[in-house]
């Protein structure tokens, strides 16, 4: 099952279908009306409203798990989705990605300058939207955005760092991906008037969920199907970014084997098929899957403090999908 289909199941349940439509309408409203046709064409070609809407879904479900969904939920979810889309535009430039959501990327169609400026434009709309949100909401969002940028910078700094530890890897993906997931859940619960205990439980859920999601994304980059993933794969290896599968593989080698393998990596003498074979034979893919499953278990355990509800069940369902998305 693809993630797109999974969220169709959630929407059809009626749990948050109407609210997600309102988030999409808010995003559309923020991106239309004030621009000439050429800019609108760029926005439409990127397909912002065609994404998974995962982070807005977490905002809304977290809110519903604690109370009622309010107008601030809609605006906050729209802001977070725009931030996410801006990072995708910039990521495609950095990774030289040619496919996103099963369509050519903006950078492959119009060049890096256009993609970067479009990402900057989305962030400018975020600034405007945050200016009318309560300061504590804007503060939480900006802190998550700063952490995401720090994580991306740390990953760039550690390119070709074959000594990167698992601990450092998890620190990087916690900042670059999980922080925004965690804030999505935290804000959803807080905006609904949830207790400190419930909001903290949702924050923890989002954190573990986000780490698991990025970990499985890194696994898919190695062993996934590009058509099913809807984006260019194999970029982490080509861009010499050490992710968990490769970090684990290196840890299984003897000192001499490790030295020889790193030399091949530095000399670009390891192709993807050979790497995949080595990752499989050393159990590195399975190791990554097991780590993701443990993280999902921790995420689900965080929800045990919440009262039973359809929204809580939906959060558990989403986490199960993340656990199983790499099989």
Description:
By secondary structure, the chain is an all-alpha fold. The chain has one domain: Orthogonal Bundle (Farnesyl Diphosphate Synthase). Helix content is 75%, strand content 1%. The protein has a two-stranded antiparallel sheet with strand order 1-2. Helix 4 packs antiparallel against helix 5. It is globular and about 60 Å long.
Q: Mind summarizing the main beta sheet?
A: 2 strands, antiparallel
Instruction: Please tell me how large the radius of gyration is.
Output: 20 Å
How would you sum up the global shape?
globular
CATH architecture: Orthogonal Bundle
How many domain regions?
1
Task: Describe the structure in brief.
By secondary structure, the protein is an all-alpha fold. The protein has helices spanning 3-12, 17-30, 37-46, 54-66, 71-95, 106-110, 112-130, 135-157, 166-191, 196-223, 226-229, 235-238, 244-252, 255-266, 272-281, 284-302, 310-324; strands spanning 99-100, 103-104.
Structural topology:
Blueprint: H1 3-12, H2 17-30, H3 37-46, H4 54-66, H5 71-95, E1 99-100, E2 103-104, H6 106-110, H7 112-130, H8 135-157, H9 166-191, H10 196-223, H11 226-229, H12 235-238, H13 244-252, H14 255-266, H15 272-281, H16 284-302, H17 310-324
Antiparallel strand pairs: 1-2
């Amino acid at each position: 099952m693809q993630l797109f289909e999974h969220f169709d199941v959630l929407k059809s349940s009626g749990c948050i279908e109407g609210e997600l439509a309102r988030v999409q309408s808010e995003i559309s409203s923020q991106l239309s009306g004030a621009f000439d046709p050429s800019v609108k064409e760029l926005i439409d070609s990127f397909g912002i409203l065609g994404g998974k809407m995962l982070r807005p879904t977490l905002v809304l479900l977290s809110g519903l798990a604690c109370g009622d969904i309010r107008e601030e939920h809609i605006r906050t979810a729209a802001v977070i989705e725009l931030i996410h889309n801006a990072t995708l535009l910039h990521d495609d430039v950095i990774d030289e990605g040619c496919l996103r959501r099963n369509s050519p990327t903006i950078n492959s169609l119009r060049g890096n300058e256009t993609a970067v400026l479009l990402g900057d434009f989305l962030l400018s709309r975020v600034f405007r939207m945050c200016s009318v949100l309560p300061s504590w909401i804007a503060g939480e969002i900006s802190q998550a955005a700063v952490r995401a940028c720090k994580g991306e910078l740390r990953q760039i700094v550690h390119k070709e760092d074959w000594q990167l530890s698992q601990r450092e890897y998890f620190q990087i993906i916690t900042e670059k991906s999980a922080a925004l997931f965690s804030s999505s859940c935290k804000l959803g619960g807080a905006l609904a008037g949830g207790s400190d205990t419930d909001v903290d439980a949702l924050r923890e859920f989002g954190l573990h969920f986000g780490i698991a999601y990025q970990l499985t994304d890194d696994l898919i980059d190695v062993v996934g199907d590009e058509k099913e993933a809807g984006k260019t794969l194999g970029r982490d290896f080509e861009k010499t970014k050490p992710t968990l599968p490769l970090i684990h593989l290196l840890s299984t080698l003897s000192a001499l084997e490790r030295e020889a393998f790193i030399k091949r990596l530095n000399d670009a003498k390891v192709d993807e098929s050979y790497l995949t074979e080595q990752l499989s034979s050393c159990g590195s893919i399975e190791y990554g899957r097991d780590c993701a499953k443990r993280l999902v278990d921790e995420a689900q355990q965080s929800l045990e403090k919440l009262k039973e509800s359809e929204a809580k069940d939906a959060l558990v369902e989403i986490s199960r999908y993340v656990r199983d998305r790499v099989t």
